[in-house]
Amino acid sequence: MNDAVQHIEFNGLPAIRLTARDGAQVTIMRHGAQVISWIPAGGEERLFLSERARFEAGVPIRGGIPVCFPQFGSRGPLPKHGFVRTVAWDVDAARAEKDFATATLSISDDDISRAIWPHAFRAELTVVVTGQRLDVELGVHNPGDEPLRFTCALHSYLATKEVEESKIEGLRGLRYLDATRGTEHKETGTELMIEAETDRIYFDATKPLLLSEHRRALGVSAENLPDAVIWNPWEHLSAALPDMTPLGFRRMLCIEHGAIGKPVELAPGGEWWGRQSLVAL
Hints:
Beta-galactosidase, Chain A, domain 5, 8-stranded antiparallel sheet
């Protein structure tokens, strides 16, 4: 397929569009190495992108799959969700094979990053698309002579037809932090419904999760990313966010995996990776 790998502009910023032979397609921004669109073979868009998302250097893009590194959220002294999501990454490779298409982007420390996080690092994001499946893998290498400590997440904004009619399975029995209240609980229900502002970190969420909607579903699983975050801003917060429409919360739900509760400790010369997989059902 001649157009399997396309270097394009997406809302004025450089991006890569990969199309597998079966028609599955993914678009990745160089800005933050952010997956911004995923259309499974023969399907429809499964990632949410805010109508008011900003596409500017140094500004987070509201939607897709932002890369949170080397800090998740505000759990540390760095800018919220770290700094790699708002800068341009390099494209190391992009190709289409018989059964899939893939690309790898990378970023390393520089004078700007060391001014706020004084560590040597190299991060790579590898994206693989095929059929009904999207794999996103974050890899980190510590080239320095001191230990590296970080938290991270692949902050997936999933598209929903109507979030109030969606349900999440696979969380029962897990300990979670309710960030809206600052309290910890244990999930007792077999299904989680979104009926208000929701901001939860589920710890040791190693089993696959299932997002079910009317006539469609999406499986979310991970390797080496032990925690799961469920987030929806709901009506009042959505209306207050400048890059969300007042009713945008109804069309999205963040279900993302990360290493959050226990930071990754990477020895000098060490390497680490974590992978998240989305499967349209």
